[in-house]
Amino acid sequence: MEIEFATEADYTYIADRDQHIAKALIASKIREKEIFMLRDSSEVIGRMRYGYLWDNTPFMNLIWLDEPYRGKGYGKETVLHWEQLMRQQGYPTAMTSTQSNEDAQHFYRKLGYKDAGCLMQENDPMEILFTKKL
């Protein structure tokens, strides 16, 4: 698997599949190198997107692998790649979250993320916040 920063050529792919980001933000996140494309040969198999909570803490907003590529270590490889990049840039901590009804919470805990609280929004499952010292 190759992990590469998204380029303008990836815009349509991202816009068509990522329903959790405003279309108006995709181009700027590509320019700021805040989206990774995950590829097997030249085929896109997933993506990872991040930003910054409080403008100073890297926050992984989304990691997605297409179904046939799950459970093969690609997600872990991607998260560790991102963490290393954030560490190199001098960030001491990274964060992410997932809803309480999603299995991703177990994935993050296996990678060393610690429960840091929750967010409760009306009509949505509880959002669990995670932190990890880099």
UniProtKB/TrEMBL annotation:
<feature type="domain" description="N-acetyltransferase">
    <location>
        <begin position="1"/>
        <end position="134"/>
    </location>
</feature>
<dbReference type="Pfam" id="PF00583">
    <property type="entry name" value="Acetyltransf_1"/>
</dbReference>
<keyword id="KW-0808">Transferase</keyword>
<dbReference type="InterPro" id="IPR052829">
    <property type="entry name" value="N-acetyltransferase_domain"/>
</dbReference>
<dbReference type="InterPro" id="IPR000182">
    <property type="entry name" value="GNAT_dom"/>
</dbReference>
<dbReference type="GO" id="GO:0016746">
    <property type="term" value="F:acyltransferase activity"/>
</dbReference>
<dbReference type="InterPro" id="IPR016181">
    <property type="entry name" value="Acyl_CoA_acyltransferase"/>
</dbReference>
<keyword id="KW-0012">Acyltransferase</keyword>
<protein>
    <submittedName>
        <fullName>GNAT family N-acetyltransferase</fullName>
        <ecNumber>2.3.1.-</ecNumber>
    </submittedName>
</protein>
